Amino acid sequence: MKRIMSLVLALAIAMGCLCAFGAASGEIETWYVKTGDGKTLNVRDVYSGEVIGRLNYGTSVAVDQFIGDWAIILYGSYGDAKVMKKFLVRNDPGKYVPSGEDGTVLHDSDLGSQTVDGMNKQYKLMVYVAEPYTVLCVPTTRTGTVNLRWGPSKNTNLVAKVPADYELTVLAESKNWLLVNDPLTGKISYVARKFTNAR
User: Fold this and answer.
1) Less Cβ crowding at N or C end of the chain, within 10 Å?
2) Are 57 and 35 in contact (CB under 8 A)?
3) Taking a C-beta distance cutoff of 8 angstroms, is the pair 47, 22 a contact?
């Protein structure tokens, strides 16, 4: 009886260790890199360790097993390496295409840039209007608001979020952006033209 109890205890300990550290899948599976911003995925030698390489968006990855928030992958001649599990998907995501807050596909000219040269280019496209006019905000996002930003780029910080039919006064414009004044607060900001309608 003692022998049986010892075996049961040993089995319980082994199962506990297996649950704690994660179980191997038993076979190599192909997953794909899908980062939220289309950037590369860091490959590390150990969990939260040194970056030993980077995988491009859409790259196929040979996954040996998952342990917690991490995936153990086969990484060339290096052997086992670690990547964050949340950036892997089962199906090929295809080419990364940046999208707007309403899900519509945007082009580089719509997005603006975080670089100084890119932002200067966006500013130079703005033309002051001869006579300021009023526009109404038209949200197409789930939040039901329109973002007002400090620069003509979706990469810039928010100045405010305003509801549908909020009135703004246009001071300057380009194909994709409007420089506006908020009559209620006096704040100057930029809004994407596609989220407005002329009054």
Assistant:
1) N
2) yes
3) no
Evaluate if residue 105 carries a pLDDT over 50: no
Neighbours of 94 (CB within 10 A): 10
- 100: Cβ–Cβ under 8 A, 6 or more apart, which residues? 106, 110, 154, 192, 194
Domains and CATH numbers, the chain: 23-89 (2.30.30.40), 108-198 (2.30.30.40)
For the stretch 159-163, contacts whose Cβ atoms lie closer than 8 Å and that sit 24 or more positions apart, written own/partner, are 159/187, 159/189, 160/185, 160/187, 160/189, 162/137, 163/137, 163/139
Residue 56, SS3? coil
Tens digits of residue pLDDT in 28-68: 999 999 887 678 899 998 887 888 888 988 899 999 999 99
Q: How confident is the model at residue 5 (pLDDT cuts 50, 70, 90)?
A: low
